[in-house]
Write a structure and sequence with these properties.
Pfam families: FGE-sulfatase (PF03781)
Shape: globular
GO molecular function: formylglycine-generating oxidase activity
Distance between the termini: 14 Å
CATH class: Alpha Beta
Organism: Thiothrix caldifontis
CATH topology: paralog of FGE (formylglycine-generating enzyme)
Largest sheet: 7 strands, antiparallel
CATH superfamily: paralog of FGE (formylglycine-generating enzyme)
InterPro entries: CTDL_fold, Sulfatase_Mod_Factor_Kinase, SUMF_dom, SUMF_sf
Strand content: 15-25%
Protein name: Formylglycine-generating enzyme, required for sulfatase activity, contains SUMF1/FGE domain
Order of helices and strands: EEEEEEHHEHEEEEEEHE
Amino acid sequence: MRTHKIFPTEFPEPWASDWGEDEYGLFMGFTYKGVRQDFRWIEPGTFLMGSPEDEAERRSNEIQHEVTLSKGFWLANTAVTQSLWETVMGNNFSRFKDKNHPVDNVSWNDAQAFISKMNSMKEELQLSLPTEAQWEYACRAGTSTPFYLGEQINSERANFNGTTPYNNGRESEFRQQTVEVGTLHPNDWGLYEMHGNVQEWCQNWFSNYPVQPSLIDPIGPETGEHRVLRGGSWFSNGSGCRAAYRDYGSPTYRSGGYGFRFTHGFCASASRVMQKQTNSQLGQVLWSEWDTSEGGDGG
């Protein structure tokens, strides 16, 4: 059972349809038109971001440095599903159609449009993409190994191209498509498929890490050309799924390997800016579409 040392200032929050505590810690869920998404409480802390110099197959842009996240946040326990995406956006352009699979074929701009629409419907959600530091901190869940699963992964525990394993590991299955969210091994904080399945967009512009040995709440540069992608996908090799592995893409680029998960709380400002730009196009949504009935048990 995970025991939190630092707790959220409000729990549960008014928008939660259910909430509780289990072996992974605190959770809250919201339900929109019958589609549920759970969040996990990620308490503040300090960790080593990037990879050590002796990590096999590391890249030069993974320079290890200390990062402190001074505020806790809630992170979706899975990538956004096609079911939730289609319920909110009214379309689904995913390559691998299945309501319980992660939405794919979405750009960073698409993810922002989805988040802005969600926030316009219920402002207190304060959703945004996680920062790159938030993403890696949550993925590692207190570990310092290449994967939250340890020194190696295989296709029984992560969805990637198992025929190109990490660091001369054993070969395993290459499924050649996404899998249903929440079905592979979670990390110690209850987050699923942080390695493989779909690469996940982060809020940051991509750049080299700052030269400072220690950073507090880094959010990256103010401008750039590409946005950060993390976690690897169903077609990535083993090395590309490491916790420290950094990738990037144009904000407008879509791929069958690109998806996202969102955070609640700390990094909502960028989404609120975009929300102001798009509210006039979103129309009115009835509050009755949200299920805020009491909960408390289950996960």
